[in-house]
């Protein structure tokens, strides 16, 4: 087994570290015997995390399988920005040195990863993939909403169970450290968890004569993770820069005229780099070689993306479907056409 060097989990969500502890691109086998060996050999875990890891190998496996989803969501949210939630191959962690800086990007990564753990475990519970949980057992009997009375039925997603495990496991290291950065991580972890719960919705099925809704059966359902990503992206845009209070127990805003951050806000300490050039110290990989939009005025424009360095244009041919026609019944036939397009990429730093 190729293990990470000792200490590489420092200031990292253990979930991220666990992803980088894979062998040959696949998850370690997490059988009853193998789980203790694996959990004992992941560097950076505190005792509480090792204990939970050994006790719940199937939960750890579910988390590992879901990590690609929240990394993909992070990359979707920032695909047109200088920082695009890029991952780094063959580094000690998938985000390089980015997470060593207490920036708003680090705040987003912690929030989306914490949310991803909750979402993944909640879904696994409802789908019967875990022995320790299933549907929410508290959603039974009758209740009311703005539309009137309804009966609980179906399978309500058991988000509370997932939130409890996520808090116990992901937060354990930060709770042991209790320094300024640990408090920041704890705050953003919680904001991510709360986002998943906040976006749950009541779904109902109507029963009654001629499809009337005289009787409703309802259940609580998770929102698609894209909505969580959109929500946390808005929180990223409005993230609050903070400093520690005089007692070292919490935050106050860096700019006194701004309101204190709520539990739903993302918080950060340090200004972000501009991500224009490669800088190993800050974790920036630069924008050299990134595709930009010459006609845009937004963040994906060549002027903004390339940081004024200019861009190169290449002419390429792409295969595309064209002249599509509908044939009764029921098929669509298209021709394969070649489309010549210009692709603009940012010049590298000189």
What is the strand tally?
A: 12
> What structural class do the secondary elements suggest?
alpha+beta
Low-confidence stretches: 1-15, 18-33
Distance between the termini: 40 Å
- Please state how the strands of the largest beta sheet are arranged side by side: 1-2-4-3
Largest sheet: 4 strands, mixed
- Tell me the series of helices and strands, N- to C-terminal: HHHHHEEHHHEEHEEEEEEHEE
Write down the overall mean pLDDT.
Answer: 85
Strand content: 15-25%
Tally of distinct domains: 2
Radius of gyration: 24 Å
Q: What is the count of DSSP helices, taking H or I runs of 4+ residues?
A: 10
Q: What is the helix fraction of residues, given as a range? A: 25-40%
- The best one-word shape is globular
Describe the structure.
Helices cover 35% and strands 21% of the residues. The chain has 2 domains: 14-281, no CATH class; 291-346, Wnt (Wingless and Int-1), C-terminal domain (Endo-n-acetylneuraminidase fold), CATH 3.30.2460. Strand 3 (201-207) and strand 4 (215-221) form a beta hairpin. It is of the alpha+beta class and 350 residues long. Mean pLDDT is 85; it is low at 1-15 and 18-33. The chain is built from 10 helices and 12 strands. It has a 4-stranded mixed beta sheet with strand order 1-2-4-3, with no helix packed on it. Strands 6-5-7 form a 3-stranded mixed beta sheet. The protein has a 3-stranded antiparallel beta sheet with strand order 10-12-11. One of its GO terms (biological process) is cell fate commitment. Residues 1-25 form the signal peptide. Ligand for members of the frizzled family of seven transmembrane receptors.
